[in-house]
Amino acid sequence: MIKLITPFENVSKTTRTIILVGWIVLLLILWFVITSGEKHLFPSPDQVLKGFEELYKEGLVVHIFNSLKLCFISILLAVILSMLFAYSFPLPLLKPISEFITKLRFLPFTGLSFYITMVVHDARNMQIWIMVIFLTTFLTTSLISVINAIPQEEFDHAKSLKCSRFEVLWQVIVLGRIDYVIDVIRQNLAITWMMLVTVESIVVASGGLGFLIKNSDKFMNHGRIIALQIIILLIGLFLDWFINYLRKAIFRYSKI
């Protein structure tokens, strides 16, 4: 027992699983106790279960697929643009553009979306480009950080093999850091998933989980809101696990 409260103590996988299950059980017990009275701020488990049933009857599965489709299209376009900006960072002529893109991540969300709505009129395309613009700024920043973290020895090694400047760029930065790109996507996926629900709640014409949350909040249905939060959390955790598993399966010798 002392080992469990000792800093930096290594515990077995079974012990970690028991600890995790114990915390989940404790959380569920607290949830039942706190919501057992007639008046409670947080919705009870019965209200949340009822929320799941209502959401399923209203086409929850369709809305989940709409959100996932928006997520995948947005992150695919954002990754392509971010890689172009990041890989042009070592070029002196294009470096200021890449640095400028990274600074755009401080722009407010609402202001930029207003101008996008003036150019793009289709609701789905509007959501996609709002997501792409914001994701590109964060992904470009992360990818440039990966490039800056490459040890000078790797560049010197490529030069000693008589590689040209562009061959060094291709071998060391592009090919040599593909596994890092996947990890950057995984890290920024949480931002993607969080922003996606916000974007869908702003532009509700195409449906999605954000649309369901906005409707539930409008009618003060807290059971449905918590049910949706649980669904969003579980999907986000699954996507994070899947991308990490994919990276480890493809790049088995990665040092990340």
Automatic annotation (TrEMBL):
One Pfam family here: BPD_transp_1
UniProt-listed PROSITE patterns: ABC_TM1 (PS50928)
Regions annotated as coiled coil: none
Positions of the ABC transmembrane type-1 domain: 64-243
Gene3D superfamilies: MetI-like (1.10.3720.10)
Top-rank lineage group of the source organism: Bacteria
Subcellular localization, as worded in the UniProt entry: Cell membrane
Residues that span the membrane, as ranges: 17-34, 64-88, 100-120, 126-147, 191-213, 225-243
Main location: membrane
Keyword terms, alphabetized: Cell membrane, Membrane, Transmembrane, Transmembrane helix, Transport
Statement: the UniProt record of this protein carries the keyword Signal: no
GO cellular component, one term: plasma membrane
GO biological process, one term: transmembrane transport
Topology in the lipid bilayer: Multi-pass membrane protein
Protein family (similarity comment): Belongs to the binding-protein-dependent transport system permease family.
Protein name in the entry: NitT/TauT family transport system permease protein
Record organism: Chryseobacterium shigense
